UniProtKB/TrEMBL annotation:
Signal sequence annotation: 1-18
Keywords: Signal
Protein name: Short-chain collagen C4-like
Keyword match ATP-binding: no
InterPro entries: Ca-dependent_lectin
GO cellular component: extracellular space
């Protein structure tokens, strides 16, 4: 009996000493300093997480948009389709006034599901025509096909640009797509330069020339342009980049 009593007493004393040692460790200045340092690091990490979440929310609410000419879909990470439709602009020449080349020069991407007005338009002062590839330079069978387009949004970036004369983006930028620079004929009405995708698609049932907005592949001309770095009569690459 005395043996078991002594054993129990020894265990109790050991527990008490162990508890006292733990209490002494928690009161140790070095331990307190380490706990304070860990708490400070935890607060810093928590703030970093909150900042990152705020930046992600801001990017998701804003993003950047661009038009992918010659395609009906968007590609790439964090990219969504806003709408797809048809490239359009003013006619390459004016039927009644062959020497007048005014009017809007920009190219539009018209949606497939327009909401039309109830008012008729009886004049011919400013009409929208569909765009068509006028040559096979964009693809082996692109001539006289109508041009589709897609309005795209990258939810992760804040700005998008088209760079003429390059097929790759500068460091720090994300490539959305690349292709060939397209524009109107120099003898036709004014037009804008657009970046036509390197693998162009065509609008269904649009395989004949209707004389709307005509797109040609653009080339370099030395003289006003420094050569090198540019080269006379070379086709102009283009790339759309986001950041």
């Amino acid at each position: 009996m005395n043996y078991f009593y002594l054993l129990t007493l020894a265990l109790c004393v050991g527990c008490a000493l162990g508890h006292e040692n733990k209490r002494l460790l928690l009161n140790d200045p070095d331990a307190i300093a380490r706990l304070a340092n860990l708490e400070q690091q935890n607060q810093l990490l928590t703030q970093k997480v909150l900042n990152l979440e705020s930046k992600m929310a801001t990017r998701q609410d804003h993003g950047s948009t661009y038009i992918r000419w010659g395609r009906t879909q968007c590609e790439g990470t964090n990219t969504e389709l806003v709408y797809s439709g048809y490239a359009a602009g003013q006619r390459y020449n004016h039927i009644a006034y062959t020497t007048r080349y005014g009017g809007p020069a920009n190219t539009l991407c018209l949606p497939k599901d327009p909401e039309l007005s109830n008012m008729s338009y009886t004049s011919s002062w400013s009409l929208l025509f569909g765009a068509e590839y006028q040559v096979n330079g964009f693809a082996h069978d692109s001539a006289y096909n109508d041009v589709p387009c897609a309005v795209c949004r990258n939810t992760y970036t804040s700005s998008s640009i088209m760079i003429p004369g390059r097929h790759s983006c500068y460091s720090g930028w994300i490539e959305e797509y690349n292709g060939l620079l397209g524009g109107g004929h120099e003898g036709d009405t004014a037009s804008s330069y657009i970046c036509v995708d390197k693998n162009p698609e065509y609008v269904s049932s649009g395989e004949k020339s209707e004389g709307g907005l005509m797109l040609y592949v653009v080339g370099f001309k030395c003289g006003p342009l420094p050569c090198p770095p540019y080269h006379n009569n070379h086709q102009v690459n283009c790339v759309v980049c986001s950041k």
